[in-house]
Design a protein that fits this description.
By secondary structure, the protein is mainly beta.
Length: 114
């Protein structure tokens, strides 16, 4: 049974930092491209960052220079370091794994107060 479990969300003031983690189990993690998405209330789920099996990364324009995605294949975990947080970063953040199949985590709430 594949599971993706996000953690690290919470309430932070504008300008602060958080580090999200997504621990994967039940799959061969190194074979999966990994993604972070976010969904604010009343809005669509948007791609925030991705990291390929090769380690290549991509970011949404809105988070470039502030967020960093990384992975540790030995720990089956993908991370999202979020710095210089803004109120508009408030959302539920979801982890996604993609190879021949796609899996989603349950999400973790990030709230940035002004």
């Amino acid at each position: 049974q594949v599971q993706l479990v996000e953690s690290g969300g919470g309430l932070v003031q504008s300008g602060g930092s958080l580090r999200l983690s997504c621990a994967a189990s039940g799959l061969t993690f190194s074979r999966y491209d990994m993604y972070w998405y976010r969904q604010a209330p009343g809005k669509e789920r948007d791609l925030v960052a991705s990291i390929a099996r090769s380690g290549g990364t991509n970011y949404a324009d809105s988070v470039k220079g502030r967020f960093t995605i990384s992975r540790n294949n030995a720990k089956n975990t993908v991370y999202l370091q979020m710095d210089s947080l803004r109120p508009e970063d408030t959302a539920v953040y979801y982890c996604r794994a993609r190879s021949s199949q796609i899996y989603w985590g349950q999400g973790t709430q990030v709230t940035v107060s002004s």
